[in-house]
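User: I'm preparing a small set of examples for a lab meeting where we compare how different chains pack in three dimensions. I only have the primary sequence for this one, and I'd like the structure in token form so I can line it up with the others. Please keep the answer compact; I'll paste it straight into my notes.
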Amino acid sequence: MLNKVVVLLFTVACSYGTYSIMEELTLKHKTHKTANYFSIEDETIYAINFPCTINPVNDSTQTIPLNSELINSLAPSIPENCSVYFSKRRGLVVFESTYDWTQIALKSLFTNGKHQVKFTGIRELSYGKFNGHYTKNILVLRAPEVSKKISLLSFNIDRKASRSRIEISEDGSKVTDYYEKTDGQISYSSNMTKGNLATNADDQSTFSQFIPSSFDAYTFFELNYLTAIDSVFDACVLSKWIETGLLILKKNDKSIFIMDMKQGQRAIDNLNEVLGIEDTDENFRYLKNFKLTQTDNETTSEGYFITDIQNFVVLSKDKTLFDELGAEISLGNSLNKNQKKSNRVFSGLPKNVLYRSYEVNNSSSTISKAGEKWITTNYVREQDKLNIEEDQSKSYFSMNPSEKINSFYAYSGRGNTFLITASNKWIRFENGIRKWEKTFDKKVVAKPKLMEMSTEQNQDISILFEDEALIVDKDGRILNRFPTSGSVHPIRFRLRKKISFLIPNVNTMTVTDNDGQALSTYSFSSRILDMVLFKENGRKYVGVLCEKMLFIIDLEQKRTKRKFPLEDKHSLLNFSEKSVIISSDKNQTIDLNGNRSSVESPEGFDFKTAYVNSNNLELLFTKGNEIISMNSAGQFIGKKSINCTSIDHVVVYAKVNKPIQIGVLDGIENKIVLLSSNNFIELGEKRHGEKNLQLTTYDDRGISITTFLGDKLIQYTKF
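Assistant: Understood. Below is the structure token output for the 719-residue chain.
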């Protein structure tokens, strides 16, 4: 009997031992997968693969204080070959090493911790508020309330990633892998497709040659992807004519929408037919109450401006931004020519995408289709402040009155111009934005002129009609109104400390006060061509150039002091005391004292303009691409061949205490070249320009260069 009992007890013991061994072996097999220690209760799991090189717990990870305190205290002693997993919601941390854990290795791990590690059993330990056990290469630390139950959870991370985020739900797990790069951080995640017809598109090849490089944000949607997620766009008639997708550019919180059209499709023509819009001569339309996409939440306007440019359709609620894109395209300032900006938008990310976004803070993301999955890629770069500032500091303003410009005047500063259009409309732009406009029923007969006694802050201009002259301030207010005739502007000056005006008519000149009351009148034997105000021995004089005579009039004594007969036609070079008149055949000058000088320019050279340099008057002549300078006494100064085809227009920027710069307009290549007055050295880059040119002051930092761009004005800034 005793033997039977012994045998029974031995059998039970063996069975129990076998069961225990099997259980342990089974447990070891199960717990060897790190994922099995976590569950849906954790909501999110973070994996840090290189805790020795990055901060394991930072702003991008969310976990309970118990976990963060533990990990941050152990971080300095976590070995290089160890990954750390931790829960967002529960006190659960798992250390997965490439080598098996031993007590010696564990003591080294906890050596700098806030608590003392205690080994409480076989492969079991306690540390602070955590209980733990280790099996082969896995160390698990749990808070007392966390169950030891093994789950069936499964996920895969890239062990080469710096860190990973695993989001747990009833539908499974979503893994996002993050990679630390020298210039930022890139991440990848994936989820199953939603079964639509979207196919990856190469938005860089499609749009980058067309779109401007100056923008704050870039967002691209592939056509079928967008129609699946945006019911407004799906219902929009434009979506039926689109080839690849929709690109949205943002600048200064304003949006512009660009789509490539299918072969043979023109948006305006199609809309005219579908919506019953009356055709006009304008190259754009305004679509009132038009709905494009639910992504556009701007409320500044109720409709869109729309136009066709090449094989693209362009829409925007903001007319300034709308015009600017056209200017950029005309200038060739496309994204593909700005390598730095292009790299920030596209480099390090998939080429073919369903969706792409770029923000000015250097964060980019894409969604691409790969088999049955959508792969999301995010790239957050280190801030490149210099490059961002370059993008945000626009070097020009484009100003579009939407009709032909007859003449313009550029004020000082940036984007400040006064335009006169073919329909006799006056339009004032300030900082590149249309500020006001007025329409008159009579024609302007001369280019507007800046009035004397103007300041940088108060710049008044003279506008000439056939029967009167108006003096207008920057706000469009008419300050003075004088009856006049001809094409010579009034002159404003002080006479005995009171504001006065010289008002020219055909062959008379009237001196008036600020109210227009006549103080004196002068009659001449021929038509007035021009006038110049100057001082001589402290007294104020006016030089009046007529067809047959140059008169010098003492305004204080109200008499003609001297006069000089003229054999042929002359033009006035108006520089106050340094003024001269130059003959039509350009072979002589006459100063205000009647001194004549021969000016024999080389054969074929035409006079262009003049300027005062170091108290001397210099004359500029051109032929082809050559430019020469001579002084008013006929002495040769310099000559230069300019890197252009033809010199059609020359202007000079000459301000006190500022370097003299010469602007040359090439009418064949439509480009502007800036020169220094010293040996005609070329300054900086060439810029697009047409028809006319003006150089003005841009505070203390540089100059503004105003010219035509087709039917628009464009103003560059040179620092």
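A couple of notes for your slides: Residues 170 and 582 are 91 Å apart (CA to CA). Confidence is low (pLDDT under 50) at residues 1-31, 384-393.

User: Perfect, thanks.
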